[in-house]
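Dissemination and training. As part of the outreach component of the grant, students in the summer workshop were shown how a complex can be specified as a set of sequence lines and then modelled as a single object. The example used during the hands-on session is reproduced here so that future cohorts can follow it. Participants entered these lines:
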Amino acid sequence: MEATIAQLIFLALCTLFVLGVSVFVYVISLKRDKTWFFVYAAMLIVLVQWMSDTGASLVYHSYYFHLASVILFPSILFCLFVVYVVQGISHVRQMIFVLLLGTFGYITSIGMLHLLGNTPSYLQLDASWIRNHIFSVTAMVCDYIALLLVWPFIHSDRFSLHIIIKTFFVCWIIFVIDSLIFTFGTFWGNPALGQIISANILIRSGLALLAAPLIGFYLHIVQTQKGHVFSYRHWDDLITKEEHQMALEKSNETIDQLQKMEKQITQKNIDLEQQRMAIMNILEDVQQEKNISEALAKDLTKFKLAVDSASDHIVMTDREGVILYANHAAEEMTGYTKEEMYGKKAGSRGLWGGNMDARIYEILWHTIKGEKKSYNGEFQNKRKSGQLYIAKASVAPVLDAKGEVEFFVGIERDVTHEKEVDRMKTEFISLASHQLRTPLSAMKWFLEMLLAGDAGELNKEQKEYIGNIDQSNERMIALVNGLLNISRIESGRIIIDPQPTKLRDLVDSVVSEMKQKIEEKQLGIVVSVHSELPDIMIDPKLIRHVYMNFLTNAIKYTPKGGEITIIISRKNDEIISQISDTGVGIPKVEQSKLFQKFFRAQNVVKMETDGTGLGLYLVKAIVDSHHGKVWFASEEGKGSTFWFSLSQKGVESKKGEVSIDIGSVHSV
Amino acid sequence: MVVEDERLLLQAITKKLQIKHIEAVSCASGQQAFDYLESMPELPKAIWLDYHLGDMDGIAFMNRLKSNIKWVDIPVLIVSNSASDDKIHSMLALGAKKYVLKAEHRLDEIIESFSEFLKEK
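and obtained this result:
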């Protein structure tokens, strides 16, 4: 049948209609997402089919195919509409819908053709018609299989060009197969028609072959550049450009935030690390402190042990004198146990004290609490048993950081025995004093009488011998005197009786006493005393003895014709006395021992046998007791110079028990 | 009067006094001295007293001596071997005229001082 102009126009209008709908769908798909793409792709397929059918119709002057497409077309559209509607439900269901509706559409279209009475021959209801339709249905099934095959690709995570091409190539193969089946079926039924159909297939295939890549390519370009973006996950996840932009921005925001958070976390890590280091340092410090504490505790234990086992009585009291601690020796010495002592005041009547004059205790308290200084003194205490004993005590305040008294430490030593020993020494001294001197005095006087001729005239030899005895006796007396003086000095019992003294007078008296001896040896003597020498509070007897000793030594150890010089000068607040001679001097090797008891240098022992070696020892003891210093310089063969210093302030009185014997006469 | 408990010393003193033409009564103990003092027709012009006597010390002697009005004025020379200041002071306070150390002095020196006493009186 020839196609009339009207048919051609109708054909053109339908083509335009299909195109228009395609464009419409395309535009919609730009705004929408996901499934609309599928819709759009399907529409393109339809377009291709329509074009091929139309072409075939034109070539073979049959518009049946074209008509069929016109009727088929709305049914497909309807399906797609449904697909749009069903988006959101699972894909499997979507597919089922499409299948069912497609089938429905197909049947509907065939039915409409019959109704219109325009059933083409091959669509006549006869045996061949059924045959044809079976093959048609099979072909349709193949179409749907193709769809099924497309689906996974479309739903794959990676939607790329080659997949698209692959997909459509596969679809094309399926279409070809579908068409071959259809063609075969039609040839079987109607060979003439079969020709037409095979041509249709050729065209369709050709177009499909062209179309597939184009579609694929187009899809790719369009979808990636013009509005649709394939997500990586899901067909359904297709999103618009704006959404993509928003997603990008959001992801950028998220990245920014993450970076910020990363920074924060890094910073936090640094902080934590620093804190960790700080804590490690603190732990180290704590460990150090712990070590120090432990060391201190060990030390403390040692000291505690030392104090507890010390042989002196040690007690510690609070600032009111209440006993907080007493060591073992305290218990032993006082006879009271620690428990009896705790809580009571140290040295109170309830314990070992209270036996002395109240004033002594007052002075003690004033010194330790008022002046916050330590007090040293002797106390007579009473043991728990009632036994009295003498204790040498030292009480010291312990001050806190503010300088306030925190507690007192009292240390006492039982010196009863020492006192006893001292007393025995004193007794011995006085006993010896009397005992030794009595025979010595007897000897002295009898010898004196003998020498004076009171028992008869002596011959020369007798005189000589008795003279020797007398000399030896004198030495013994001197030695005894020296010994007794020293033992008195050593026992600390020498009285110091300071008087305002003119040193000048002392020196003068000493010099005049030795005048005879000086003249005998023809020694020159020079005395030079500072013109403004003040009176000084010293014990004149003792200091006179010092001058006497130095002068005696100078005279003794200086050969005939020598020189003796005595100078008294002032230096700052000290008065220095100097006695020099041009005598034999002291050998260097012996100089260190000069002030020792009984020491006499070798060079003088030979020359002058008379000498006890006690003189300088006594001198040093006297000067020391006056808080002064004594020193010397000497060169053997040239002479010696001795100095001693006295403080201008003088010396405080010392109550002793004895004085040294220097042979001076006391008179009223 | 010489009061000295050491026999040898007493002997020496008395002998020397004799040589010096000084008459002396010798007593070997404090008690003997007081016995003499009480029984003597004439009181001694001076007393040479040793501090350490067998039966009493110098202070006791002085106290006893000074307690008797008859003997108060007799000058006493204390001759001793030890010299501690308070002993000296107390003796001098009690009325002793002088205090001399034995071993330091020659006998004739002491006797010289003693005669001074006698002359003084």
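Residues 12 and 107 of chain B are 8 Å apart (CA to CA). Students were then asked to discuss how this feature might be tested experimentally.
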